UniProtKB/TrEMBL annotation:
Coiled coil: none annotated. The lineage of its organism: Bacteria, Pseudomonadati, Pseudomonadota, Alphaproteobacteria, Rhodobacterales. This is Glycosyltransferase family 4 protein. InterPro entries: Glyco_trans_4-like_N, Glycosyltransferase_grp1. Residues 16-210 form the Glycosyltransferase subfamily 4-like N-terminal domain. It comes from Paracoccus stylophorae.
Length: 403
């Protein structure tokens, strides 16, 4: 079986879970052709991402002329399908914040993908994210290409469900996937009740072999915390300097390592300076997977102060590494992190509650932190093994193709 994976920007450091899912499908004998609209090649540091870049076909690299020619060809050869696709693009573009012109570009991208899917004999397309990849996949179906499914991660899709026409995309798909029970509940809000049975949960997965032998918990003070992720408003890292300062003011000895980068970096650096925490915070920039595992190994716990999430991949990785987690009580996170058992859950946006959790972690014994870490490891390995989750997705695809 040969299928296509349809993505917007791929590969990129923040979506390594997609690479792992693809590899999981390939280990099951499914051939996967990667198709992305574009790639942020300059941001790639992980050798596995660089290898993935070489295996990915970039649509926009073909040029506007190629996309226009494919569109005109389908308009002539399949006027009915082209008319349906044009009507869908016009309709969805009218309710989106992006406008109809952007959706006509999606139609041209879909024409290119339709031609390539036929050439490659793809029997199914799976898109990641309910944004433009799912839009392009739906248009491919209208144009006579293979049927499609798509995975919704959140939180962006849940911020604009009407503008993204999530309900219509679900109705057009063979099936839709959420990465948590919470995510599925949000999709059910916007889908017709008759379409609820086609919405499934497939977790993002971790590769247990990458975390086969967790490093021992660091001994003694300071409490070493790691925060890993894109520096953006939804991740909430701007709370960390103040929370850290509050905890240290009550005598807690803490060091924070911030892994990642993004648009909020200047504000985060300014907050670190304002609280005179330069000696207590290390910023590493983006690291490859080996670098992330090294930071986790050197830490007692992960801290994730997010305002909005789907189900954070880095939380899974920290738990697999045998580390406790301090996270916010939002979205799918409580389905994985258990307050008082595998870590601490706090209300999103509460600096005081975050500081209290940090103080509790600083006051916990190394044995207690290790117990939390082991409980988290047991839980995530049970729920998020990448091969098990890829198997769920493979069965959904196989069933959809047979219908």
């Amino acid at each position: 079986m040969r299928i296509g994976y349809l993505l917007n920007t791929y590969p990129q450091p923040s979506v390594t879970f997609i690479r792992r899912e693809i590899r999981g499908l390939e280990r099951r004998g499914i051939q996967v052709h990667r198709i992305a609209m574009r790639s942020d090649r300059d941001s790639l540091v992980d050798p596995a991402d660089l290898e993935e870049y070489d295996r990915t076909e970039l649509v926009l690299k073909a040029g506007a002329g190629r996309l226009l020619m494919d569109s005109l060809r389908l308009a002539v050869l399949r006027p009915g399908g082209f008319g349906r696709a044009l009507a869908r693009a016009w309709r969805m573009g009218g309710r989106s914040g992006q406008g109809r012109l952007r959706h006509l570009i999606y139609l041209a991208e879909a024409a290119y993908v339709t031609r390539r899917a036929a050439s490659l004999r793809l029997v199914h397309l799976h898109a990641h994210f309910g944004t433009n990849p799912a839009m392009v996949a739906a248009l491919v179906g209208d144009l006579g290409g293979p049927g499609f499914s798509f995975t919704v991660h959140g939180p962006e899709e849940f911020d604009s469900p009407v503008a993204l026409s999530l309900g219509e995309k679900i109705a057009a798909s063979r099936f839709a996937v959420a990465i948590s029970a919470h995510g599925r509940s949000q999709l059910c809000r916007w889908a017709d009740h008759a379409d609820w049975p086609r919405i499934h949960v497939v977790h993002c997965g971790i590769d247990p072999t990458r975390f086969a032998d967790p490093a021992p918990m660091p001994q003694g003070a300071p409490l070493r915390l790691a925060a890993i992720g894109r520096f953006s408003e939804q991740k909430g890292q701007l709370l960390l300097p103040e929370a850290l300062a509050q905890a240290r003011a009550h005598g807690a000895d803490i060091h924070l390592t911030l892994v990642g980068d993004g648009p909020m970096r200047p504000q985060i650096e300014a907050a670190i300076a304002a609280h005179d925490l330069g000696h207590a915070v290390t910023l590493t920039g983006w690291l490859d997977e080996a670098g992330v595992r090294r930071v986790l190994a050197e830490s007692h716990a992960l801290i994730m102060p997010s305002f909005a999430e789907g189900l954070p991949m880095v939380v899974m990785e920290a738990m697999a590494a045998g580390r406790a987690v301090i996270a916010t009580w939002i979205a799918g996170t409580p389905e994985l992190v258990q307050d008082g058992h595998t870590g601490w859950l706090v209300p999103a946006g509460s600096t005081g509650a975050l500081a209290d959790a940090v103080r509790d972690a600083a006051g916990a014994s190394t044995d207690r932190l290790a117990q939390m870490g082991q409980a988290g490891r047991d839980r995530v390995l049970m729920r998020h093994d990448v091969d098990r989750e890829a198997g769920k997705l493979a069965r959904l695809i196989e069933d959809a193709i047979r219908r």
